[in-house]
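Much of what follows relies on a compact textual record of a protein's fold. The record below shows the convention in full:
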Amino acid sequence: MSLEPGAAVTGQPAGGAGVTAQPTVTGQPPPAGTGLAVAEPAVSCAGVTYRFGDHVAVNLVDLTIQPGETFGLLGPNGAGKTTTIRMLVTLLKPMAGRISVFGANTATQPMRVRRMIGYVPQLLSADGSLTGRENVELFARLFDVPRGGRAQRVEEALAAMGLTEPAGRLVKTYSGGMVRRLELAQALVNAPRLLVLDEPTVGLDPIARSDVWEHITRLRERAGMTVLMTTHHMEEADLYCDRVSLMHSGRVQATDSPANLKALLGPVASLDDVFRHFTGGTLDGDTAKGGIRDVRRARRTARRLG
């Protein structure tokens, strides 16, 4: 098959049952000299490593994400996805290597990085004892949104997620999909250039998942944001991501568009097949569905499993 411009062969995958091993593919943005403008990367990871004691959670990871991309970081539990995300959003410092967000070093310029990102973590970040509006107002203060424009930013973020009408209700009365949209509103209140979503639809039923993605897609198209996401739902990654990286045992095994990765395995291959091929792993089943308690339970499980 023909790969994206600049694609490189870098190693061997974990392999999957019934599939012939193929080289690891790294799809890259257009190289210099092609006549296409190359902007400063939204995210650049070079040789990034992190350990928990003797366990190497992230091992020499290299990634480049271009402005305006929706980029998926995929892999089984324990692959190193969330640790990579936590380094990127300045919650952890790389033990080796470098991460930059629009040119700002996450280790040496954390405040500058934080002003450019919105982060929706796996774990529940909305307070059920507050109203939706109060939750977003709290995040506006945490992000140091100027007081003069704070109220307008809060209302704009709520409106972008379709939450203007229920904004005055306590969050503990929200459905799971509404809670996730509220968390997105919290992440958007500082008008970020990069939106980082760690399992954005975990614990949601298919209808709520579709609703959340409809809002994310609309916002990305309108604001030109870059989106980095992790997910165990391969159909989400296939449908919404421009490119994906497959992680396994702390390393990036392959990076390319979903279409190119599927083509490596044949005309009828799915992204599920690609996942199993490059990670040797299995996909999680659909999680419980419902309201705020189900979302909280699913995220606690996800954290325990890595």
Observations:
- Residues 1-36, 284-292, 301-306 have pLDDT under 50 and may be disordered.
